[in-house]
From TrEMBL:
<keyword id="KW-0812">Transmembrane</keyword>
<dbReference type="InterPro" id="IPR046342">
    <property type="entry name" value="CBS_dom_sf"/>
</dbReference>
<feature type="transmembrane region" description="Helical">
    <location>
        <begin position="103"/>
        <end position="122"/>
    </location>
</feature>
<dbReference type="InterPro" id="IPR000644">
    <property type="entry name" value="CBS_dom"/>
</dbReference>
<keyword id="KW-0869">Chloride channel</keyword>
<dbReference type="InterPro" id="IPR001807">
    <property type="entry name" value="ClC"/>
</dbReference>
<feature type="transmembrane region" description="Helical">
    <location>
        <begin position="200"/>
        <end position="225"/>
    </location>
</feature>
<dbReference type="InterPro" id="IPR050368">
    <property type="entry name" value="ClC-type_chloride_channel"/>
</dbReference>
<feature type="transmembrane region" description="Helical">
    <location>
        <begin position="437"/>
        <end position="457"/>
    </location>
</feature>
<feature type="transmembrane region" description="Helical">
    <location>
        <begin position="409"/>
        <end position="431"/>
    </location>
</feature>
<keyword id="KW-0406">Ion transport</keyword>
<dbReference type="Pfam" id="PF00654">
    <property type="entry name" value="Voltage_CLC"/>
</dbReference>
<keyword id="KW-0868">Chloride</keyword>
<dbReference type="InterPro" id="IPR014743">
    <property type="entry name" value="Cl-channel_core"/>
</dbReference>
<keyword id="KW-0407">Ion channel</keyword>
<feature type="transmembrane region" description="Helical">
    <location>
        <begin position="266"/>
        <end position="289"/>
    </location>
</feature>
<feature type="domain" description="CBS">
    <location>
        <begin position="557"/>
        <end position="615"/>
    </location>
</feature>
Amino acid sequence: MPTTESDPFSEAAHSGVRTEGSTDGLPVAPELSLSLDAARMPRRSTLIDRRVLRIIGISMVLGAAAGLIAKVLMVLIGLITNLAFYGRWSTEFSAPAEAVPHLGAWVILIPVIGGLIAGLMARWGSRAIRGHGIPEAMEQVLQNESRIPTRITFLKPISSAIVIGTGGPFGAEGPIIATGGALGSMVGQFLRVTASERKVLLAAGAAAGMAAIFSAPIAAVALAVELLLFELRPRSLIPVALACVVATGMRYLLMGTTPVFLMDTLVAPGGVALALYVAIGALLGLISVGVTHAVYGIEDAFEKLPVHWMWWPAIGAVVVGIVGYFAPLTLGVGYTNIEDILNGRLTFGALAFLCVMKFISWSVSLSSGTSGGTLAPLFTIGGALGAMAGIGLSLYFPGLGIDPRIAALVGMAAIFAGASRALFTTVIFAFETTGQPAGLLPLLGACTAAYLVSAVLMRNTIMTEKIVRRGVRVPSEYKADYLERVLVGDVCETHVVTLSASQTLAQVQAWIAQGRPESQHQGYPVMDAAGRALGVLTRRTFFDPAHLPSATLGELIKRPPIAVTVQHTLREAADHMVVENVGRLLVVDPSQPGRVLGMLTRGDLLSAHGRRLREGRRLRRHLSFTTYRRMRRRRAALR
């Protein structure tokens, strides 16, 4: 009759063998010993395999392509700016502000023309070119297996260059990130790759585009991890990092090696000044929440307009033109404005005027659904606010050691950290684009404070609010899989009730009818005369009317059992259950072929999750002064 096997696991059984990577569960055939002998062979690493090396090579090519596209985009913006504002054929990067005194009121019409063209391109080309690019890429990663329409690769940079070149108050980072991501997705759609590999290619192209525009490869990698990959694994991190290295090398070759925002050398702040910079960061975090709500509030207002959305960019561009007429510095990418703010070249009044007018122009234009980025405008607004705070504190409290330039740097980064909650991306980006190591500690403190305030007051971010409204669930926390930390041998049932292959169905039915505790399981391993597992049968099979009562259990087995070893993780076991479409796995000992040590079920996996929940919710005190005094008395008694 049925037997129960029990055996404690040795220390060797608990020692992990996944030093190089993970493996699938082991299908156990009747020739069990052969399968388990093979399992004892050195396991091939799955951290990096041939497919990953292939993706790395493709990503590096994407990095080079993104570097070229970034250069083409900057040339195209320069060409359109010169044609629209100066009436000359030149690709030199020119600021629209210098042309405003000569154009007069005509400057209002130029952004409207750009907005009208962008609306037509979105209507008849692809609606996906609207917006600043990153949320749209996130949506494709989360909802559409990273498949971006191929036409976005061409339409996005052209539409963005037209909008920015005609005075749109945006940076080039959003469009190039979207374009690089679309290029990576397009390559991934032409090649035979998995959805996960296509996501890596999309992230590699997007991050490479950002690295090429700003010469900020490390920040670009952080951006990919925080906003696109939603994971941190070697098979995704290495391709993205190398793509950014190649893209930055292309930038060095085509555009030079100097930082994007040149600053005079900064001096590390003292303790009091550092605390005040952190406070400025918290204040900017609060403002970033208001900015995010304002942008989406204006977007909701556009939704209520009684005209087709195709006309919205032109309507928003009217505001851009009017603001640009009174505040010419708000037109275009404004990278020179950021550099002036960081170097203290603007007065308090000029900073306040630029901050307010840039916010009006950018928020209305972005909400209208035109094509452009958010990073440069937010840097301008936040940098101006930080510089104003720094000027005020240094003027009225000179003994505090506040440097308005560091305050500007802190404000610039903190507002973006609060609005996007891409903490490490922002800190590293501000450092890489300025090359100021003395600013690293104030940046970390201020951006973390802004991140904290934003996380307390705002559920979604400026990057995710739009797609969350469409029903997309965006991950907000990245943590290690708990099931990866638990071995099968730690949770599986070790008291396994087995059945003999020679038993008849009638015998088993009679045994189950007795109602004993050991007969209440849902599945039972079936063993041959030599004690080898032939398969697993369930209660459904036992009571299937299609089977004759005289049939033996050995005759009813249709497939070999599926097994894992005690050294596999629960994540490997769970994945194997899904792949094999089974609800239970045999647990075997690789050191003794044919020996069944236990059974793992879906319920065991849920129990492991229960342990994780208890660890996160149970409040316990392990040390106290009473415990300490009791321990001292015990030591004294032992003496």
